[in-house]
Amino acid sequence: MKSFRRNMTAIGLALAAVATTTAPVAAQDWEVRITPYVWAAGLEGDLGTLPGFPAQAVDLSFGDIWDDLDYGLFLAGSARNGPWVIYFDGSVVKTDTTEKVGGPYVSKVNITSDTSTLAMAFGGTVSQSYAHNLDLYGGFRYWHLENSYSVYTTSGRIKRDADADWTDPILGMAGRYALNDRWQAFGAADIGGFGVGSDFEWSLLAAVNYAFSENFSLAMGWRVLDIDYDKDGVVYDTTQSGPILGLTFKF
């Protein structure tokens, strides 16, 4: 968490875009959206999460990850008041992999991996009509990796732990467009890192929403999250992509 505090101090307060109006904005009630969702993402790239050992190429489908998945928790949300908006997205994923070796000295290897992210951004509406709105925002995405390696030998277990965490500033845009009374298209894109935490990262979301009622809807779409991090012997140069499915509650 020390690097989190350092980086937060470095990036300062998140940027906010000013709405394109010169008229005074009257006080309005907050509109809050909360979306728990499932992200069936695959993973490809280079991973080296144990300092001192070289990075390895990985190419895992969601089915491969599902076999080793302990749990995955995903939650997104927004809070809007007039032209101002706060965005939130967080995830926690834990996998547990055991490979039998069957050699004369090593019987099996176990790897437990925890990956957590937390993104928050602050922004404002720059274009709006009855059918659409477009926001610009700035903020941060925090990453935490924690891995535990256990090698089971004839003389006992050898265990080693490693972890890394960093914070990336991000800049992005998000928008919605009403297709009809029930269907709505929405999306978001951001870039970040810029050498503050990772060398570079970007994400893209494209989805549609079907409203069952004014306050309850189903979200379906596709998400991509790409990051290039290589510091202090830890390599996390990966692309995660796959479909998302979520339920949105509006208050």
UniProtKB/TrEMBL annotation:
Where does the source fall among the domains of life? Bacteria
InterPro entries named among the record's database cross-references: OMP/PagP_B-barrel
Q: Where is the signal peptide?
A: 1-27
Which keywords does the record carry? Signal
Its recorded name reads Outer membrane protein beta-barrel domain-containing protein
